[in-house]
Amino acid sequence: MEELLKLEALARTLEPDASERGRLIEAAIGYAEDFLVRLPELPGYVEDDDRALEALPVPIVREEPDGLTATLETLWEGVDRIGVNEMAGHFFGFIPGPSLYASAVADYLATVTNRYAGVYFGSPGAVRLQRRLLEWLGAHSGYPADAGGDFTSGGSTANLIAIVTARDAATTDPAEYSRLTVYVTEHTHHSIHKALRIAGLGRAPVRTVPVDERFRMDTDSLERQVAADDAAGLRPWLVIGSAGTTDTGSIDPLADIAEIAERHDLWFHVDGAYGGAFVLCEEGRRRLAGIERSHSLVMDPHKGMFVPHGTGVVLVKDRSAMARSHGYRGAYMQDADHDEPSPADLSPELSRPNRVLRVWLPLRLHGVAPFRAALEEKLTLARLLHQKLTEIPDVEVGPEPDLSVVTFWCSDDEATRRLHHMLTADGRAFLSSTSIAGRYTLRIAVLNARTHLEHIERALDAIRELTLLALRNQG
Hints:
With 475 residues, the chain is of the alpha/beta class.
């Protein structure tokens, strides 16, 4: 008994009292406030270095506790100081994933209360809240109220769920998989190809449909390819439309693809991980016309709704199809059986956090209007940026943006690379690069709640100045 009480005393140190909780929260808030106050001047990217390596020794934890001050210093030096800083308004790389402060508060509350949100029995309120928010997002996308859906860890998982659902709706016979033909473009996100492989469709024929001059799927080519595959004895099955490609932000002609999908009995899936959230604003909804005719779609609130990483959404019009693909039962869960559908019935995830709070709380605290305004603002800023880039000598600019990604390059790849490196070192704007038609291309993704006109103007100033230097150093 004495040994048991010793174990209990040590174990109870994991449960701090009110005074200790207050000290922890005060220190955490101080750390966060210091970061947010300095955020406008922090670089968009800091390379890994010896300081970071030394801050995270091996082993990373010890038997004895460390002080909170020392631990937060380790967190800064070893983790938060280096790498990309997507929180800054001057971060234009990749597809930014900023995070609103209200979402951090929501995550704190979700973690403290720790409601199990996978099964209705575990937390009816959390499941109901998720369902209501999915209905709201679905309504903006033109989906019916009884559509299936889930909040996932991100777009990759969301795409996987949709593809598995579409696969099983087509056939449950694996012998048929090698005939199921998929239609994509060269700009379709790689998570689609990864999902196909994970879903056992690695040997399924995948057709890369040509794109037009604006990098959108050529639907005439799509129709011809579908007809040819059908005539060859294959089974045209799935067409992927992009609602904002990562490389260029292009939107495939969704309404035209829907027409073809309906004519040829294809499952039409829209990857809107980047651009899907633009359905919340009037201009975005106009540009995404046709998305409502898809069978399934994904969007990432951790992009266009400015909430933390690890927040995706999948919507499927036929909820029963999702349930057939993902619904399972274990004997130990017999107490949790209920007529109300559970998120775990529509997804591979059983254990999961109550991640819906990080989306719902900011919407409740701020209202929807600021989100609509921010999305409209990003579309307007991207058009302005594109126009201003065309006025810079020796800079060539890609098509006018469908959404909020703008591409540009210099006269040759080496000059563009030099400009990219100079911009990264300069710090006024962080950009990322891609390769389009074999050309080294810079891209500016305007999708951060903290990005405003001042950040666009500062980025343009840096590009103007450094382009001259990049070309002057040519050769």
